[in-house]
Amino acid sequence: MSRPERPKQMLALTADETMLQLTATRVAGEAFDAPIVVANARHTDMIEEQLAAVGAKPQALILEPIGRNTAPAIALAALVARDPEAPLLVMPSDHVIEDVDAFRAAIAAALPVVQDGWMVTFGIAPDAPEIGYGYIKVGEPIADGVHRVDRFVEKPPLADAEAMLADGGYAWNGGIFLFRADAYLDALAQYEPVMLDAVRRSLAEGERVGTHVRPAAKPFAEAPNESIDYAVMEKASRVAVVPVTMGWNDVGSWDALHAISAADAGGNAIRGDVIALDTTNCLARTDGARIAMVGVSNLIVVASGNDILILPRGRSQEVKKLLEAMKD
Amino acid sequence: MSRPERPKQMLALTADETMLQLTATRVAGEAFDAPIVVANARHTDMIEEQLAAVGAKPQALILEPIGRNTAPAIALAALVARDPEAPLLVMPSDHVIEDVDAFRAAIAAALPVVQDGWMVTFGIAPDAPEIGYGYIKVGEPIADGVHRVDRFVEKPPLADAEAMLADGGYAWNGGIFLFRADAYLDALAQYEPVMLDAVRRSLAEGERVGTHVRPAAKPFAEAPNESIDYAVMEKASRVAVVPVTMGWNDVGSWDALHAISAADAGGNAIRGDVIALDTTNCLARTDGARIAMVGVSNLIVVASGNDILILPRGRSQEVKKLLEAMKD
Predict the structure, then answer these.
(1) Nearest Cα to Cα of residue A301 among A324, A284, A317
(2) DSSP string across B133-193
(3) How many other C-beta atoms lie within 10 A of the C-beta of residue A116?
(4) Closest partner residue to B312 among A296, A310, A312, by Cβ?
(5) Which among B70, B92, B88 has a CA at the least distance from the CA of B9?
(6) Alpha-carbon distance B244 to B107, whole Å?
(7) Cα–Cα distance measured from residue A114 to residue A146, given in angstroms and rounded to the nearest whole number
(8) Which residues from A are below 8 Å from B322, CB to CB?
(9) Coil, helix or strand for A45?
(10) How many Cα atoms occupy the beta-carbon half-sphere of B220 within 13 Å?
């Protein structure tokens, strides 16, 4: 279902709203200003429609001419922010957070140190030895609920993941951050001056029409293609983590989606035009075609456009293998 | 896949040709004249296209205004046949016969008694206690390979089917017949005079343009809605059976189709745009959508138009239950 022209965050996979809509409204009504959205320029219309449908009015919609990973994208937002001293809450738009109250409490815990100049990442309490996430070793406490980051651990092999889960002193790096815009820009100036310069020039040479900000492609392409973790968080000294249990899920596979989806009495998580008889523990999704299932269990069935995907639960990581076979 | 506007016989389920095409060409090149086709008038164009594509030129295409079961349909053909004394080989167009040589040998065995006025049915050697077919008790031999029909048995309960299979003296009634046109019409005159009269009038009041024969609807509707078995075969006295093993299959379910389909090394019978990885003993059919399967076994997956059907092998009889649920 997720395709370049309509990526995961623009699909209503987990609720009636798309994940972009859920993200844009997650902290609405709090002390936060209107959102700054950074996105691929090709998705402009879809983003505006989806945000308008939930009453979210971005103060800026920054339209990247090409993707250069998260560090330059966040630099764009930090430079466009109205108040350089204001804390920026940086959220990927393709994650699910079920317990928003817990998330808000974590934000409240982080704010004092953030206003003091710390950069905060939210550490997801791990419940499995996932090898698809980066980990954070939680260090000494520096405020109520806030700890210094001892170190970042790249996506680990399974044995290391199991050891960290058993240790208990680690959290997943969920990719959600809180820091002042100027703190981030200062860190970039120190560790990635070429990137900061490229992003600054892309805005200076770009154009702004209403809320639409269009960085110039040539200078933006000169920014190194780096994640915020690699470019800044792993290098800076005043980096803190707020561990939090909040029903976080990056919906990285159909199995992950099944795990967080509401199920019927038979354990089936169904959305769309689906008839299931004598069927248990299946995930069925369709955006058009009618699916009829009889007497099957533990299957993932997805129909999208002209494509139908069928695989057993527990094997949805193999979709990538399938896509490669389809290209062949 | 089978729908009123495009029934099973007009689908290429078992080969590159549709079952209508396979039937029309099955005895081509033998001593048989060009076929007489009896069909629903709504399928006229599709039938002509399919027959033309395999070079089959019917001597008559009889277009029923409504369906009145097989006895009146065959009466139309018998009345339209050029030579009333010629043997008619009556074949449903939605059956598969894999061993055409065996079928031809059975026809050759039957011809002498047929020319002598007997009505012959071909008895399929049963290989399972099927409850979906009628059975024939094979009687005394009357010629080489030809036996008198002792009696017809309606679709039996399982215990009876098992007993007949164990007995060995029974054959399935495959619905394929050989008799002279006049023998059939004589039997109708004796057992179903109202039917014969109605069919005669439908032709007299109907029209014929080229090969297209259009019986008049009003008299044809007066013909009783009866099968040839009930109207004639079970009543007439000179009825014979030629038992034959010829890879006959009425493709009555997706399981039946899987059983007769060529399979790959993994036991998968696949037709259409299907990618199957680590998949075994599955049937996958699509007339448009692209199916991708990973790590599944013993599934039937069918995509047709806007519909997708998924069920385990061995349960394809439950498609009817599913259709009822879909109507609800």
Answers:
(1) A284
(2) S-EEEEEEEEETTEEEEEEEEPSPPHHHHHHHHHH--EEEEEEEEEEEHHHHHHHHHHH-H
(3) 13
(4) A296
(5) B92
(6) 10
(7) 10
(8) 275, 277, 292, 294
(9) helix
(10) 27
What tokens were used for B170? Answer: 């029974």
Structure tokens at B319: 């498609």
Q: B270-291 b/e with 16+ CB inside 10 Å = b?
A: bbebbbbbebbebbbbbeebbb
State the nearest Cα–Cα gap between B129 and chain A, in angstroms.
24
In sequence order, the β-bridge partners of residue B6 are B3
Q: Do B303 and A258 meet the contact criterion of CB atoms below 8 Å apart?
A: no
Interface predicted TM-score (ipTM) of this complex, two decimals: 0.78
Q: Do B321 and A291 touch (CB under 8 A)?
A: no
**Distance, CA of A290 to CA of B307 (rounded, Å):** 5
What tens-digit pLDDT sequence spans chain A (328 residues)?
888 888 999 998 888 899 999 999 998 876 789 999 999 999 999 999 999 999 999 999 999 999 999 999 999 999 999 999 999 999 999 999 999 999 999 999 999 999 999 999 999 999 889 888 999 999 999 999 999 999 999 999 999 999 999 999 999 999 999 999 999 999 999 999 999 999 999 999 999 999 999 999 999 999 999 999 999 999 999 999 999 999 999 888 899 899 888 899 999 999 999 999 999 999 999 999 999 999 999 999 999 999 999 999 988 888 888 888 877 7
Cβ–Cβ under 8 Å, residues B161 and B131: yes
